[in-house]
Amino acid sequence: MTPTPRHVPVAIVGGGQAGLSVSYHLTQAGIEHLVFEARTAAHTWATQRWDTFCLVTPNWQCDLPGHPYDGPDPDGFMRKEEIVAYLAAFAAKVNPPIREGVTVRRAEPLAAGGFSVRTSDGDYTADEIVVASGGYHTPIIPRMAERLPSSVMQIHSNQYRNPGQLPEGDVLVVGSGQSGAQIAEDLHLAGRRVHLAVGDAPRCARFYRGRDVVTWLADMGYYEMSVDDHPLRDGVRDNTNHYVTGRDGGRDIDLRRFATEGMRLYGVLDGFEDGCLRFRDNLRSSLDQADRTYNGINAAIDKHIASRGIEAPAQAHYAPVWEPEAPVTSLALAGSGIAAIVWCIGFRPDFSWLDASVFNGAGRPKHSRGVTVQPGLSFIGLPWLHTWGSGRFGAVGRDAEHIARVIQKRLGADRFALRFAV
């Protein structure tokens, strides 16, 4: 006889900071729920970050529900072990009804309303599902990787921990977003010879005119701008993050300066043919565009300072310290000295376990601040779900509060609050 599925009003899929934030607000509203986490709460910060990883936004922006940063360095940048401790303390405060080690294998709408939820630990039904598993699921490694010789070690950025795990020799880092630029720097500072295939990621200053750029942008209201008010609208969700670092108290990442110190820069890696790595002839334009963004952000800060009569030290705009010479579009792998490749070209979303007509052609959910057209289905923790901070510690709590209010209204949750009070 097939066991009757257990019913839970709200199923939260994912036990990271987003899922825990929703759990916090549902608990405040007295709404019964379960959090399903395939591994352990907030595990990715401990298991999928390199040893010297740190935040790129100041600690004061960490403001999870009921758990703002209260450490000794609000203008600093938490290191990996501090982030893990911060999240462990948050999980302890929330004390969520979490099922760790339980994978949601399939979820689909029921004809009578609500959802069927099949897990590795039995079947459930739910009135509401909140997908809090983020959007970074499947590491992207191009098909060309299959043709590379087995003598070259290949890992993805989520597997990189430190230079010592890689074999002796040169290292090719593919991609110059936040992970790629910071991993390239980590290797470079360790004395490794680095080859970096540069992408189209923009960059920004760490500090400008006496303050952290994030602090200036917060004062300018940038982090309160919703996706609906952004000039790019939904397109901003596809933007690559600016590269910068909070390492050693925070600094710019300047790929041109790395080049003067021996790092070899190339354009986008396009393929591998006849034993040669093939690169696009776009290194100069990529560096120039990154610098235009850098100086453009600083110019916006200048305008803000001038319009409000703020006293701030003058600072010149960035001028390039290195220019590429003749482009290198082909590099024989055998003679390059490259012993390892770190792929830093991102992730694909994988919501294949969820049967719902809410996804676009790229497999990303369509929603309005996380709420989809499928009754009872919401998402949280995605980049630019509502504002820039939606995928970060800064604003995910506000998104969680919004989702919880929508759920409370849909469930008529006064009945839950009454039952919990008895």
TrEMBL record:
**For this protein, what is any one GO molecular function term?**
flavin adenine dinucleotide binding
The record's annotation in SUPFAM superfamilies points to:
FAD/NAD(P)-binding domain
Q: Which InterPro entries match?
A: Auxin_biosynth/cation_transpt (IPR050982), CHP04046_FMN-dependent (IPR024000), FAD/NAD-bd_sf (IPR036188)
Q: Does the keyword Kinase apply?
A: no
Keywords, A to Z, come to: Oxidoreductase
Name used for this protein in its record: MSMEG_0569 family flavin-dependent oxidoreductase
Originating species: Methylobacterium planeticum
